[in-house]
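Researcher: Please predict.
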Amino acid sequence: RKRCLYFFVLLLMILILVNLAMTIWILKVMNFTIDGMGHLRITEKGLKLEGDSEFLEPLYAKEIRSSQGSPLYLQSGRNVTVNILNGQKKVATQLTTGSRGVVAQGKFFEVKSNTG
């Protein structure tokens, strides 16, 4: 009985050490820090994503902007669609860019030059 209990305690300690080692390895590989994970940082204003990123599902955001002095690139294999929703969560305005051109749907569309 005593040997079985010692064996069980030893086995349990080995499992705990392996589990701890794997957890530390995952945290290191995924680049987890106190501020966030990898290129994704948590700030007071929300999330900050640095570098190139790929989204496999639609991205919903209140604001998307690039760093000051850097252009914002959106790239898609098919098209890029921007929807503006009204108070009832229905599409009020839609801007779609694709290989065939740009399509805008809405009540008002205005194009201005850089001089206004």
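Model: The two ends are 88 Å apart (CA to CA).
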